[in-house]
């Protein structure tokens, strides 16, 4: 199966290991992974902050980069949600009818990693081995806009050696919200404090999520407070295998 990796800006710039882990997992499951070199930002940040005219060229660029691919997979619920729920109306307001049609077509082909593995490949056990106690934070966009549901949990429960601990108040936002954390820093910090408290209450070694943005925010708070707890992307857990 031919799959295009939509790496996303944050993964490319801040967490390249997540992109590599995504490729490793998909190739283990029999996919041929390609990386369209023309890809850039999907325009989510511009759209969410009220700049559709600046987002429009990015929507058009996304369409050009991924036009020839049957499946598009990203290790990011928020960016996939943007492709599925924002690109069409950005195209309708700023671009042409052709772009609107293409936005619909590509939305149907774009998947968050856990959705692709579970729904398209029909797999819940990817052969991972990760002997650690972890808790799972369901990122807002992945949960509310994209509807990933329990797919990440299905995959985590099948990982050998992994102990999964339920996170209290799991669906509460961590406070990142993209530019929200900059424009409303005090509120964001208060939300992060609550999230860190709940993570620590689980006595988990690591907090897992499907969005690098949430992990960056939560991980920063855990690190500044010298908790010893780390953050890890779902793709990195799934890519881990038992040492020979």
User: What gyration radius follows from the Cα positions, in whole Å?
Assistant: 18 Å
Q: Poorly predicted ranges (pLDDT <50, ≥5 residues)? A: none
* Portion in helices: 40-55%
State the end-to-end CA separation.
28 Å
CATH architecture of the largest domain: 3-Layer(aba) Sandwich
CATH topology of the largest domain: Rossmann fold
Number of DSSP E strands: 8
Structural class estimated from helices and strands? alpha/beta
| Strand ordering within the main sheet | 2-1-3-4
Give the integer mean of the pLDDT values: 94
For the largest beta-sheet, the strand count, sense and barrel status come to: 4 strands, parallel
> What's the total helix number?
14
CATH class of the largest domain: Alpha Beta
Our count of domains comes out at 2
Task: Write structural notes for this entry.
- β7 (206-209), α13 and β8 form a beta-alpha-beta unit.
- It contains 14 helices and 8 strands.
- The mean pLDDT is 94.
- The radius of gyration is 18 Å and the shape is globular.
- α4 packs across α7 (97-107), α6 (87-94) packs antiparallel against α7 (97-107) and α12 crosses α13.
- The protein has 2 domains: 2-120, Rossmann fold, CATH 3.40.50; 133-239, Rossmann fold (3-Layer(aba) Sandwich), CATH 3.40.50.
- It has a 4-stranded parallel sheet, with helices on both faces.
- It has 244 residues and is an alpha/beta fold.
């Amino acid at each position: 199966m031919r799959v295009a990796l939509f790496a996303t800006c944050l993964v490319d710039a801040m967490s390249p290991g997540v992109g590599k882990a995504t490729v490793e997992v998909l190739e283990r499951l029999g996919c041929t992974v390609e990386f369209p070199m023309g890809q850039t930002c999907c325009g989510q940040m511009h759209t969410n902050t009220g700049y559709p005219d600046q987002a429009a060229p990015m929507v058009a660029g996304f369409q050009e980069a991924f036009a020839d691919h049957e499946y598009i997979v990203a290790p990011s619920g928020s960016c996939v949600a943007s492709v599925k729920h924002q690109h069409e109306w950005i195209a309708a307001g700023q671009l042409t009818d052709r772009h609107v049609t293409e936005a619909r077509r590509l939305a149907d082909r774009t998947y968050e990693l856990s959705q692709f593995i579970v729904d398209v490949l029909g797999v819940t056990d990817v052969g991972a081995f990760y002997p650690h106690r972890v808790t799972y934070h369901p990122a807002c966009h992945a949960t509310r806009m994209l509807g990933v549901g329990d797919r990440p949990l299905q995959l985590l429960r099948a990982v050998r050696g992994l102990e999964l601990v339920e996170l209290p108040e799991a669906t509460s936002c961590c406070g990142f919200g993209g530019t929200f954390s900059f424009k409303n820093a005090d509120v964001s910090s208060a939300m992060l404090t609550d999230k860190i408290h709940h993570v620590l209450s689980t006595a988990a070694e690591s907090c897992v999520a499907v969005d690098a943005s949430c992990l960056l925010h939560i991980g920063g708070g855990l690190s500044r407070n010298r908790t010893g707890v780390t953050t890890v992307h779902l793709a990195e857990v799934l890519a881990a295998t038992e040492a020979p």
